[in-house]
Specification:
By secondary structure, the protein is α+β, with helices and mostly antiparallel strands. The protein is built from 7 helices and 15 strands. The mean pLDDT is 93. It binds zinc ion.
């Protein structure tokens, strides 16, 4: 499970204790900056392998990027990790003497060093959240960036509504029956991809009740022994994935074809053979679904 914490940022910038620092210019001159750039949800990868530019404060001033598009993502000793959301046209001007490609975020997770993936995922999820919350839901005025990009505040003085990034709790469960586990696939997934069952938590239910309800809705199984295993933040859709194991006494599936295309029971031996023969594709190593399966395989 060495990839379970791939997106966890251990070098957060403490914007709470530095709340008077409203923008990069206010942070101080003694830092160098690692600067990441994102445009419409795609990250700038410079010269095929470089994910950030190293800058000083003056370099950043020259970039002339509006404060609302600046994000502070972390701090490593004397280096501030900054992210900037810019148009492709602006990016061409900033990187005028360098070749770059705007790269899909999942592809970045495959290409980038583990040490910078938390910053990339943080920039991706924050910019997406800002884009979806341009206006205040209470009064309709424009929201303004606050806490160095980590919150939004309504611009209306009479409202001043403050909001924080939305995170959706989502359960994901490995269902066991004696020496077998249940794998399922959604019709919209890429061909042959099989994973654990999962679903959103609804208002007025505990996580255990979500696990029970979703399992019954998707494959018609009644389960028990519902035990929490571990969790993972999933930056693509801002889900907090909460991983469980549970037991079913029955192997009889009533598959809900509106949600699930296929579901199969497999032993360890069958799983390894199906995967080796490429009859099925398992989730990416960094996904919590893979960690739940790997954890079971090692038992
Ligand atoms: Zn408002």
């Amino acid at each position: 499970m060495k990839y379970l914490h791939l997106f966890s940022n251990k070098n957060k910038f403490d914007y709470n204790s530095d709340s008077n620092k409203k923008n990069i210019e206010a942070i101080g001159n003694n830092y160098s900056y690692k600067c990441f750039f994102i445009s419409n949800g795609k990250l700038a990868v410079i010269s095929k392998e470089l994910f950030f530019l190293t800058c000083n404060k003056d370099d950043i001033k020259k970039l002339n990027i509006n404060q609302k598009n600046q994000y502070i993502l972390g701090k490593e000793k004397n280096t501030i990790i900054a992210g900037f959301s810019v148009s492709e046209g602006k990016l061409k001007k900033i990187l005028f003497n360098k070749s770059f490609t705007l790269t899909d975020i999942r592809e970045c997770f495959n290409l980038a060093k583990k040490t910078i993936i938390p910053y990339i995922s943080s920039l991706y999820s924050l910019t997406k959240w800002h884009k979806n919350n341009v206006f205040c839901a209470l009064c309709g005025s424009k929201n303004i960036s606050s806490d160095l990009g980590h919150s939004l505040k309504c611009s209306s003085i009479s409202c001043r509504n403050k909001i924080f990034p939305r995170i959706d709790p989502t359960v994901i469960m490995l269902i066991r029956n004696e020496d077998k586990i249940l794998l399922a696939r959604n019709a919209i997934w890429k061909k042959k991809l099989y994973s654990c069952l999962a679903g959103f938590s609804e208002p007025n239910e505990s996580l255990e009740e979500t696990v029970e309800r979703e399992t019954y809705e998707e494959v018609g199984l009644n389960i028990h022994n519902i035990n929490y295993k571990f969790s993972q933040f999933w930056p693509i859709s801002n889900n907090l994935m909460i991983g469980f194991e549970a037991t079913s006494n029955s192997l009889d599936l009533k598959i809900n074809r509106l949600e699930i295309e296929d579901a199969i029971w497999v032993t360890k031996k069958q799983l390894l053979k199906l995967s080796k023969d490429k009859e099925i594709i398992l989730p990416k190593k960094y996904a919590i679904a893979f960690c739940l399966i790997e954890n079971w395989l090692r038992k």
